# Entry
Amino acid sequence: MPVPSPYASLLAAVPVRSDSVEVLGSTTRYWVYGPDDAPLTLVVVHGYRGEHHGLEPVVAQLQGIRIVSPDLPGFGESDPLVGRRHDIAGYAEWLAAFVATLGLGGAPVLGHSFGSIVVSHAVAAGLAPSRMILVNPIAAPALSGPNGFLSRLTLLYYRLGRALPERLGSALLSNWLIVHFMSLVLVQSHDPEVRRFVHDQHHTYFSRYANRDSVVEGFEASISSDVSMVASRIAVPTLLVGADRDPITTVAAQQRLAKLFPDARLEIIPGVGHLIHYEKPREAARAIVDFLGAGRVVGEVRS
# Structure
């Protein structure tokens, strides 16, 4: 039985519809939250092995903003890319095409974790949002950082999962114990309700990928690229929403990243790690509203 979301009552008040669109030869599923007549639309991109559900706790906190949330190609309900690798170049090209297809040129964009890499590289390659928001941004190369050994070990795990026969490989990649260990490493909250919810989210959605190639290529992309590679080429106003306990990107790395952008500011949320979207969604929503100058946080009145 699914674990009830601590944010369920807030999310239930948000109008939502789902749709699909053909992008670069494959089908992308996406969800639209909020009123269609909202003065601002925000496009949001989830993290690696996640899908649109992951950002719903943040969506639940926001009012007066229309949010478009696709599943990345090869994850959730979206088909894999056709004729392209699931690497950063492929995902960046897809995001630009998705935005153009929906007629959302100029809309601000948000990326969480792996989504921060996709969004930043898409903007550096020509996507032109009015503003950019990166939550838990990947600020430095994973293979050369303090977690380099663990990243290489995880890469071997993914490549083994692809090399094994289909049944064995798929079982390894979706192994309950491995997914649970990952979830235990990332969760920081001491609230038992939030912890149960986070673990349930990972077990429910972490293995909703199209095939082994897309999930392995995606991981290879996630550890071979980062935001710092393109930050200096991005002129649009940028908000970095970081965390003081992020095991993937240190505060020092986030501070260095912020200085690489021509126009960026960094907000560090205390008491949370790499799961701001699950554990501190209200604080993230407040930072988003303040930065965009639009919408409001549920229960709060903008001054």
Q: What stands out?
A: Strands lie at 16-23, 26-33, 41-45, 62-63, 66-70, 109-112, 132-135, 238-243, 264-269, 296-297. The chain is about 40% helix and 15% strand. The longest helix spans residues 148-163. The mean pLDDT is 93.
